[in-house]
Write a structure and sequence with these properties.
This protein is 32% helix and 15% strand. It has helices spanning 2-30, 63-74, 161-169, 189-199, 221-229, 249-262, 287-295, 315-327; strands spanning 34-42, 47-58, 77-81, 86-91, 97-99, 108-113, 116-117, 132-138. The chain is elongated. The N and C termini lie far apart (61 Å).
Length: 328
């Protein structure tokens, strides 16, 4: 009886000793997540607020919240149009006031995040950890690179407008000519190789060309050879790459996942795809990549029931996928 009592006592002591650690873990889990961003304010001629780190912000913080906080901390005041959600004027601590139209009909205050001009107001732009906010005064917004697109077939209300603008601003995707982007055109396998090669900085290519149908001097040759050398693309059993074939959504997932692994990004995330009625159509060689891309919200269903793994990827879709990848 005494031995049994001592055994129970030891178990109780052990449980009590583990409780603080368990409580600590739960307490950590309960802590709200925070983000840190960088804020900068400048005119077309002068730096007003040098890049300043703003930390311990709750998830869901908007650009406007950071804008208000930093300006107040630095002694600046501002005038804001509530209805149209834009900055009308900012006054520096020394009394210098700079307002819209102060340097011409196209002058005024703008903001961009990670070098992208936003297509929503400051109060609607939700920040992510590491974002870089830049509030700037321009003498002519029409001359600001990345402020608008030169393509007549992508209007401001196109569903992929923001993504296409982000890819264009970064030089990752351009039009099929100076005025046409062709958002509904199918993206070829070669095109994605070129985009990823550009994203990698176009490193020197020294490897031999492993494909029989990739010519030595094409606009995509270096990109495809580089991608093959680094395990980002592979060909078909007959030794071809088929550069002009339409890129399927499954193939896009595989190439993106391989590129993410090449850049040492985390590719361990996996999503449950069972809710999609066509999940069984995903090739076995693409399953892990599709699960990763879906978990990262890069490739989602064309509707709630269809992932369309065998469907061709349009240029607008790829701009949206890559935009989300860069943002995350």
């Amino acid at each position: 009886m005494k031995k049994r009592f001592l055994s129970l006592l030891l178990v109780l002591v052990l449980i009590m000793s583990l409780m603080p650690a368990a409580l600590a873990v739960n307490a950590d889990d309960a802590q709200p997540k925070t983000i840190s961003v960088t804020f900068r304010l400048h005119t077309d001629t002068d730096e007003w607020i040098a890049p300043t780190e703003v930390s311990d912000l709750p998830e869901g913080t908007s650009v406007f919240t950071v804008f208000q906080k930093v300006l107040a901390d630095k002694g600046y005041t501002y005038e804001y149009h509530e209805q149209y959600c834009y900055v009308q004027a900012i006054t520096a601590p020394d009394g210098t006031r700079l307002a819209e139209f102060g340097k011409g009909k196209n002058s005024g205050w703008l903001f961009r995040v990670n070098n992208d001009f936003a297509d929503v107001g400051m109060n609607d732009f939700v920040l992510m950890d590491g974002d870089e906010i830049e509030v700037l005064y321009t003498a002519d917004y029409k001359k600001e690179p990345g402020m608008s697109l030169p393509y007549t077939d992508v209007s401001w209300d196109h569903w992929a407008y923001t993504a296409i603008k982000r890819m264009y601003t970064r030089g990752l995707m351009v039009g099929v000519n100076e005025t046409t982007f062709a958002p509904s055109q199918e993206l070829s396998r070669a095109m994605l190789a070129v985009i990823l090669y550009a994203r990698a900085g176009q490193p020197a290519v020294e490897a031999a060309n492993p494909f029989t149908d990739v010519p030595a001097d094409s606009w995509y040759t270096d990109a495809v050879v580089w991608a093959a050398e680094n395990g980002i693309v592979s060909g078909f059993g007959d030794g071809t790459f088929r550069p002009n074939d339409a890129l399927t959504r499954a193939q896009a997932a595989v190439m993106l996942c391989a590129f993410a692994a090449f850049t040492q990004d985390d590719v361990t995330a996996r999503a449950d795809l069972s809710a999609y009625s066509d999940a069984g159509q995903i090739p076995s060689w693409a399953m892990d990549a599709m699960q990763w891309a879906n978990a990262r919200q890069l490739i989602i269903g064309r509707d709630s029931a269809h992932l369309a793994p065998a469907a061709a990827t349009t240029r607008a879709e790829m701009a949206t996928i890559l935009s989300a990848y860069i943002r995350k």
